[in-house]
Structure prediction request, 246 residues.
Amino acid sequence: MIASLPMYDWPHRRAANNALWAHIGDTLRQLGLAAPKELSRPKDLHRHWNRPTLLFSQTCAMPYRLGLWQACDVLGTLDYNLPGCEPGQYCSVLIAQIDDTRRGIEAFDGARPAVNVLHSQSGWAALNDAAARADINLAKPLLTGAHAASIQAVASGHAALAAIDAVSWHLACDVMAEAALVKVIGRTRPSPALPLICAKGQNVTTLRRGLEAAFNHLPNTLRLAHGDLQFICRDNEIYTQEPWHG
Prediction:
């Protein structure tokens, strides 16, 4: 069996994520599940998510909606207690250069955005939704490959704006000098937060029970390292059938 926590696994957070998984894995093994001792950190995430031995991982809502649902089931989501979001939701911050005089996305008609990948809910779909609601058109995006690279692109002037997953933005502010060279000009509409998944055929009921137990009994060291992190049980339908933007 394999497990991963790839979506917010920035280098300065890896030790904390390893500790969180050690706690979750211990809880799952107590329930009879063959949880691995260590997290996988694959280079090819889509191949990793499609493996039948996937016991636990975290993905983006858009890849799940676009087809990953055929190989995986949703266990739930993690709630990061983001401002302006209901439990189980997340959003993106819209950023521009610190000295850009434009105040909101409505002033960026024709501007070039930096986008991590075109199958990103937070970096692409949420940005397009915000642009449509502002009744503007954006230029062809600069594809950067990662939220951190999008922040660098805006800070350096290679792109005018970007939508950055709000959790990733907090992580960037901790370690990236470029975060001080950009400003937040708005937030996107909240949408369902990143789904926790397992391969179809895994024991979803026991996995959810284990995750609930693990997060209900987080040691104080993990609470300090991860903040007010909560597990919220969810089904596939919220990501595949419920009409939500993007």
